[in-house]
From TrEMBL:
Name of the protein in its database record: Glycerophosphoryl diester phosphodiesterase membrane domain-containing protein
Transmembrane residue ranges: 32-57, 69-95, 116-139, 159-182, 203-232, 238-258
Signal peptide as annotated in the record: none
Keyword Iron carried by entry: no
Keywords: Membrane, Transmembrane, Transmembrane helix
Length: 273
């Protein structure tokens, strides 16, 4: 009986410890989150305004050909953002591996320089298949004719997609702390599946708790926007967009860093489970 309850106890312990560490390092995480946000904003402005305007206004490129050209612009910028986001695990590693349980803002850039290509490759390998599946599934959702049956089907489809995304992320979650700890991509996959086999319930419950508290509200608000958008009046649309935005900020500033702390703690204490 004691063994059966251990993953549940570990989940509470994982969350309590990681929440405490997150609060102690809130300023560091906030600074780095804002840094990535502004990089994304700048990149988006450059791509959507600068590059498109240049192609159409100066080089007289056909608008239908712009998409193909933008792909070659988006790829390197996406690689950069993947690497920057991966460095969150560097902050978590510093927090978990130092006696004072503290990370500095500039520490993220040290891990970025050291493992930028590993973070990028791991993200591409683990995320791309999931997003391809999700995009294909999303295309099956329809808003016309808009009746009770359509609303129900779209709601169930949206929930299924969210659950699929969550489960897929769990399968490869341990690759990131492994990369940060030892640097080898092949070894990170071996360690990932080894830890997953031995600690699946703990991983599922620990990340599931974070998902329910800080990510699910954003997904629900987003789903509600999709459901009511064709029939809702403007005030309701604006309200739902505002709610989704607030929950989106919470998920970005809290859930994402907390995920890295939980993953790193599970990685570091796996042999104790």
């Amino acid at each position: 009986m004691e063994t059966a309850s251990k993953p549940d106890n570990e989940t509470i312990l994982d969350f309590k410890i990681c929440w405490k560490l997150y609060k102690a390092n809130f300023k560091t995480y906030l600074k780095y989150s804002l840094f990535i946000f502004f990089i994304q904003l700048i990149v988006s402005l450059i791509v959507n305004i600068g590059v498109v305007s240049l192609l159409i206004g100066v080089f007289k490129v056909n608008p239908f050909e712009i998409v193909e050209i933008l792909i070659w612009v988006i790829i390197p910028t996406t690689v950069l953002l993947y690497a920057l986001q991966g460095a969150f695990y560097g902050l978590a590693y510093d927090i978990m591996s130092t006696g004072d349980e503290f990370a500095e803002f500039r520490g993220a850039f040290r891990y970025f320089r050291k493992y930028y290509w590993q973070y990028t490759i791991i993200t591409l390998l683990t995320s791309s298949p999931a997003f391809i599946i999700i995009i294909n599934l999303s295309s099956l959702l329809d808003i016309s004719p808009y009746n009770v049956e359509t609303i129900l089907l779209n709601s169930l489809g949206g929930i299924f997609i969210f659950i699929l995304l969550f489960l897929w992320s769990l399968v490869f979650m341990m690759t990131f702390p492994s990369i940060t700890a030892q640097g080898s991509i092949s070894r990170s996959f071996k360690e990932n599946f080894k830890i997953l086999r031995r600690n699946f319930k703990r991983i599922f419950l620990s990340f599931g708790l974070n998902f329910l508290l800080f990510l699910m509200p954003f997904y629900i608000a987003t789903l509600l926007q999709f459901i009511v958008f064709p029939i809702a009046d403007s005030p309701l649309r604006i309200t739902l967009m505002g709610i989704a935005l607030v929950f989106g900020i919470i998920s970005y500033v809290i859930a994402a860093p907390l995920n890295t702390l939980i993953a790193t703690r599970i990685y570091n204490t796996q042999n104790e489970s």
